[in-house]
Amino acid sequence: MSTYLIKNAKVLGGDAQDVLISDGRIAEIGTGLAAPDATQIIEADGHVLLPGLVDLHTHLREPGREDAETVETGTRAAALGGYTAVHAMANTDPVADTAGVVEQVWRLGQESGRCDVHPVGAVTIGLNGERLAELGAMHESAANVKVFSDDGKCVHDAVIMRRALEYVKAFDGVVAQHAQEPRLTEGAQMNEGTVSGILGLRGWPAVAEEAIIARDVLLAAHVGSRLHICHVSTAGSVEIIRWAKSKGWDVTAEVTPHHLLLTDELVRSYDPVYKVNPPLRTAEDVAALREGLADGTIDAVATDHAPHPTEDKDCEWAVAAMGMLGLETALGIVQQTMVESGLLDWAGVADRMSVRPARIGRLDGHGRAIAVGEPANLVLVDPSARRTVEPSELASKSANTPYAGLELPGRVAATFLRGVPTVIDGKLA
Amino acid sequence: MKRHLISAADLTRDDALLVLDTAEELAHIAERPIKKLPTLRGRTVVNLFFEDSTRTRISFEAAAKRLSADVINFSAKGSSVSKGETLKDTALTLQAMGADAVVIRHGASGAPHTLANSGWLRGSVVNAGDGTHEHPTQALLDAFTMRRRLNDGKGDLEGRRITIVGDVLHSRVARSNVLLLATLGAEVTLVAPPTLLPIGVETWPCQVSYDIDSTLAKSDAVMMLRVQRERMNASYFPTEREYSRRYGLDEKRMAALPEHAIVMHPGPMNRGMEIAANVADSPRSTIVEQVTNGVSVRMAVLYLLLGGSEPAVTTTATEENAK
């Protein structure tokens, strides 16, 4: 296996150091390190070195919607975004609710080789919310599933949710809840508020998310389980989670990059590229989410990368699909909203985008310290670069990014997966 | 004026007055034996209706024909749309056929906006009602009617007090009326049960009340909105009887209106539900007049969007009519 010497990298944004990678691990860290023979040298030139990013929430669409994304194209996008591990959501066709499907996705990830793919198992059969899927079988499969979610749909039945929370304790699993009270959001098209009233689009009220989170933190406390909340989008949700954590309950939460930046004002364009679930909220919600991420109430940034083919977005709002791309822009959005605003330093970014998500997903090889002997899952970021998002240049098979034409800070210069570069000079290796 | 008419908010006060004044001028054409002007000869107007709406469609059709435009009626039922054709492909087809204006009625809020801003079409887009969003030509014909009855067909509606009663939440008529009437200086009060008012209504340029009886005595016009069948079993209100009792306009309530006040309804009505039959048929009711005025207002809109700066009623046209 090749040896790489990264010269003058600011480890977690600290002082510049050299990092020697050998045999898939970090072999040496120091200043003025000598390069052994046949070492490839990477001049980091003051770029920031972080642990490889871990996404808790990715839609890779395979099997079933290979027209939108495949494991191959999705993991390319992930590597370019600085990710070394992603969790592939279960709402594929067929649904990932059996050992067979999760093993297929696992194997496709292994074959891609660019990024570890950890399949998420469905909580209930067919995401129908009625009967538990074979959670134990998915855990015992080659995919070794530890995160379970009906994402896209809420596990709305309180008894089913309770049973799922209890059942996965046997193998240290976690239920990741898509918090959306279904009756309050029938036919919902956007955040319910001033803008929805003017646009005549049916509202998705914040309370529909908050009521489920409130119920589920109480349920998790009652049965002594851990609980993860997907894509938190409202100020009220942040408050409830803060309260649950203050009680010492084992509750974690994620926020998407788009909910850290965009608001429902954008829907005034009726451009379906802004249609997403949960919907874009208000500026007050955005501020509360940033604050929650900064103080650790929200543990992780998760992309909810949701590719859709052109025809599902090039249409009237009501019939458009919900979701937006995220993998290749997440780090830039986090730099802009959290680092440049002074809310997080780079060590904080590493914690929220790698360390904590890896811990929530119980991934042993990711989110580790940058230290001698650790697996070399790393990303090198040039924070001073700026780039304009051009949808056609993205590696994803789809182009539904809400950031087209937007200038974002930062550039992923290189990504290493167990010592092997998946991205070098900002391009796929 | 902007190139498209999507929202009543697209109209400045001057734009709105121009439409209303032009409509007044054009209304006189209807009184002539030959009700036709050559203004839009050779232009093609497509009525693209994804929802059933006979009255709005024939109103636009009559308006376009009186201006000598070629009219193509494209109804989604029985067309390629019912076979799954997208809005985009329909638009591209119309573009290929050379539509100068597309009048669109669609069940999805924002569909006309998307049609106008997508680059699929080059012609003007007129919103003839989209989902629960807007219906700007209805607001224009309502304002036209109010101006005729309350202001001798002249000027704006400064200081006039207009009460709109009913299902504001789902009403595109209410949204467009609030915006246009505010532009014209009227004081609007929305009256509805709290369940039928949208979140954020307090930011609209109007007053809101839950009590119809406290607003009638100071209203110059009261507009009753249709309560749609599908709302009746969705717990927006307990029963039709209770709705009618608390928010319906019956003779007793009509008697509380000032002498000069008018009663309006965009139609189609649920007689006995939001409006009593003898109120709808009373001399104060402008319901039939609104339909007549709809043609004049839509003529004005099509003329101003398509005809440009030439006068609507030319000398030649008058001579032709005189022959």
Automatic annotation (TrEMBL), chain A:
Keywords: Hydrolase, Metal-binding, Pyrimidine biosynthesis, Zinc
Cofactor: binding comment: Binds 2 Zn(2+) ions per subunit.
EC code(s) of this entry: 3.5.2.3
Active site: D304
GO molecular function annotation: allantoinase activity; dihydroorotase activity; zinc ion binding
InterPro entries for this protein: DHOase (IPR004722), DHOase/Allantoinase_Hydrolase (IPR050138), DHOase_cat (IPR024403), Dihydroorotase_CS (IPR002195), Metal-dep_hydrolase_composite (IPR011059), Metal_Hydrolase (IPR032466)
GO BP field: 'de novo' UMP biosynthetic process; purine nucleobase catabolic process
Cofactors demanded by this protein: Zn(2+)
One GO cellular component term noted in the UniProt record for this chain: cytoplasm
Entry function: Catalyzes the reversible cyclization of carbamoyl aspartate to dihydroorotate.
Protein name: Dihydroorotase
Organism: Yinghuangia soli
TrEMBL record, chain B:
Class of the enzyme per the UniProt entry, highest EC level: transferase
Pathway terms, separated by semicolons: Pyrimidine metabolism; UMP biosynthesis via de novo pathway; (S)-dihydroorotate from bicarbonate: step 2/3
Gene Ontology biological process terms in this record: 'de novo' pyrimidine nucleobase biosynthetic process; 'de novo' UMP biosynthetic process; amino acid metabolic process
Binding site for carbamoyl phosphate: R55, T56, R105, H135, Q138, G267, P268
Domain Aspartate/ornithine carbamoyltransferase carbamoyl-P binding: 3-147
Domain Aspartate/ornithine carbamoyltransferase Asp/Orn-binding: 159-305
Binding-site residues, L-aspartate: K83, R172, R226
Known EC number: 2.1.3.2
Keyword terms of this UniProt record: Pyrimidine biosynthesis, Transferase
Catalytic activity annotation: carbamoyl phosphate + L-aspartate = N-carbamoyl-L-aspartate + phosphate + H(+)
Domain of life the protein comes from: Bacteria
GO cellular component, one term: cytosol
A molecular function GO annotation: amino acid binding
Family: Belongs to the aspartate/ornithine carbamoyltransferase superfamily. ATCase family.
Record text on subunit structure and interactions: Heterododecamer (2C3:3R2) of six catalytic PyrB chains organized as two trimers (C3), and six regulatory PyrI chains organized as three dimers (R2).
Its biological purpose: Catalyzes the condensation of carbamoyl phosphate and aspartate to form carbamoyl aspartate and inorganic phosphate, the committed step in the de novo pyrimidine nucleotide biosynthesis pathway.
Protein name per Swiss-Prot or TrEMBL: Aspartate carbamoyltransferase
Taxonomic source organism: Yinghuangia soli
Gene designation per UniProt: pyrB
